[in-house]
Specification:
mainly alpha, single chain, globular, 23 helices, dolichol kinase activity
Length: 570
């Protein structure tokens, strides 16, 4: 019995994640010893929780995406792994005096917030699966050993965090503030995780929900920190502020952050208004009820304009001190280089129109598998984003934010069935869905766009690895696409008996990314970028991300770019 259970503890996805963590820890300098220890403990704890969960009877509290494994280990270590890699990169910058110590310390604080968020959700999962409600106890193969190991991991992780805080900050109030800040992230992550899995049942695995949860908590926490820092700046001398909140944010990042968070909070705002409207029309005369749907739409669109046109720009103006209204600043930014940027926009529109119309007709009339058809959109991303990232990277940052905002608005309209676009958007989007999407939430287009955008956004500021911003475009647009197409047409040898991924497809994906890198590096050299990474390190990064694509049952558009980006930063 034990010999049969042993191989299940070491599947391909876990092996790739262990390789990813080992590579990150190997590259970490001694100055990041506390972060390395915490990442190791987090990985071990996540592995024990994943084994416990997948060895147990399912818990009714979690309705996860059908056909997907739990993905707890991958979901728990991805963002902290990104934070650790970014810390390693900034440590090199600090040694070269390219950045100030305050920027490194802020990213360090973000790392601890990421780790605490993931660790808190793991503790919550551990408690739920060891103490299920209604005496429906899970049958855990690890038994008492698993519970003891979980308790030990929690204690060691807390001890490492406290010791690090005590050594890093000389004053007691700063140590206390840091610990409270990290603990607040952990508490918020647990609440957000519960909200995600209950609001969007069967839309994500536990690991995917954990990734989304920790990402949102960090993003909202950064917004709150930015706002509080601005308030402090108005109340205390600037010199004191520079020691604690010394990183400089660009206008573009502030605009993107404001718009995206405004749209993420918008459903909470509009829900209250629509509930009032529903209550009014339900008791109103018949003539009023005839205009119910139209009135609902008017309230929705008017509220959307108010949030994006008044509330969000007011916050932007407060935290950034724009020389003009943020909307006017965007127009000035776009037309500061009109020939290049307007031409690029026209090129994007042409590519989108031709591709979408062509593939939409094919999807309705062709017998080609939808998963292969959607890979053409990955190639379209390469055609659109590579030229822009090389020649107009700052404009591409803003364009990604605008595209993601449009996707969010369309998804809200689709989910809420807002007249007159709700039905049309739903019909159009369903033509490009796959098995990972549901009627409740379509995530494939979000994950592709974010997978390409996040490495670019995270590479802002110091970046001594010119390929790092291309992590999403290379891994999804080229590697994932070639792996799927070659594997589907020529694949014979499968990685597992139950999976569809083939060794031929994985080899094609890895080879194509390496070939793309060899072509891209000379082009980047002409624009002033110098390749400082060892080719062996690049080969390992490409191979690990390719193996992750082959083995993972999670949403690869979300995880692969982040893992590839982390490895490229080392």
């Amino acid at each position: 019995m034990a010999t049969m259970a042993l191989p299940s503890l070491f599947n391909g996805e876990r092996a790739v994640v262990v390789l990813f963590i080992a590579r990150t820890l190997y590259a970490a300098p001694l100055s990041l010893l506390a972060e390395s220890l915490s990442l190791s403990l987090l990985s071990l704890f996540a592995l024990s929780v994943e084994i416990s969960v997948e060895s147990s009877s399912p818990i009714a509290q979690f309705s996860t995406r059908p056909g997907a494994s739990s993905g707890i280990l991958l979901g728990a270590v991805t963002l902290p792994g990104v934070g650790a890699s970014r810390l390693i990169q900034l440590s090199r910058a600090l040694s070269l005096q390219e950045i100030g110590v305050e920027e490194l310390e802020y990213v360090r604080l973000q790392y601890w917030a990421m780790a605490a968020s993931c660790f808190s959700v793991l503790v919550f999962l551990c408690f739920i699966f060891h103490h299920p409600p209604d005496n429906n106890r899970s049958v855990c193969s690890l038994g008492d050993w698993g519970r003891r190991f979980s308790s030990l991991s929690i204690a060691l992780f807390a001890a490492v965090g406290c010791v690090f805080s005590a050594m890093k900050f000389d004053s007691g109030w700063r140590t206390t503030a840091m610990l409270l800040w990290v603990l607040c992230h952990g508490f918020a992550a647990v609440k957000q995780f519960q909200h995600v899995v209950h609001t969007f049942p069967a839309c994500a695995s536990i690991g995917e929900a954990l990734l989304v949860t920790s990402g949102l908590v960090i993003y909202f926490g950064d917004t709150f920190s930015c706002t509080v820092a601005k308030i402090y700046e108005l109340l205390i001398p600037a010199k004191v502020m520079s020691e604690q909140h010394g990183i400089k944010r660009s206008e573009t990042s502030t605009i993107i952050q404001g718009v995206l968070l405004g749209l993420l909070l918008f459903p909470l705002f509009i829900r209250s208004l629509l509930q009032v409207w529903e209550k009014y029309t339900s008791s109103a005369p018949c003539k009023v009820r005839e205009y119910h749907e139209m009135g609902r739409s008017v309230i929705f669109y008017a509220s959307l304009v108010f949030v994006l046109g008044v509330i969000v720009p007011s916050w932007m103006q407060f935290v950034q001190d724009f020389p003009a209204h943020p909307v006017l600043w965007v127009f000035d930014f776009v037309f500061s280089e009109p020939l290049k940027r307007i031409s690029l926009c026209m090129y994007w529109v042409a590519v989108i129109c031709v591709s979408v119309l062509r593939f939409y007709n094919i999807s309705k009339n062709s017998k080609i598998e939808r998963i292969l058809l959607r890979k053409y959109y990955h190639l379209m991303a390469v055609l659109m984003f590579v030229p822009a990232l090389i020649f107009q990277p700052k404009f591409l940052d803003l364009a990604f934010g605008a595209a993601l905002a449009v996707f969010l608005v369309l998804e809200i309209i689709r989910v809420w069935r807002i007249w007159p676009l709700g039905h049309l958007v739903n019909q159009f989007m369903n033509a490009f869905t796959d098995h990972r999407d549901s009627d409740l939430l379509i995530v494939s287009h979000f994950s592709l766009l974010l997978g390409c955008a996040l490495p670019i956004w995270m590479s802002s500021g110091f970046n001594d690895r010119p390929l790092a911003p291309f992590a999403g475009i290379l891994s999804l647009g080229i590697g994932d696409t070639m792996a799927s197409m070659v594997g589907h047409k020529y694949g014979v040898l499968r990685w597992s008996k139950t999976g569809k991924k083939t060794i031929e497809g994985t080899a094609a994906g890895i080879t194509s990314v390496l070939a793309a890198c060899s072509v891209l590096l000379p082009v980047l050299a002409t624009t002033g970028y110098i390749f400082t990474q060892h080719w062996l390190s690049l080969f390992l990064a490409v191979t690990v991300s390719g193996l992750l694509e082959a083995y993972t049952a999670q949403l690869d558009n979300a995880f692969i770019p982040l893992v590839f980006y982390s490895l490229l930063c080392l």
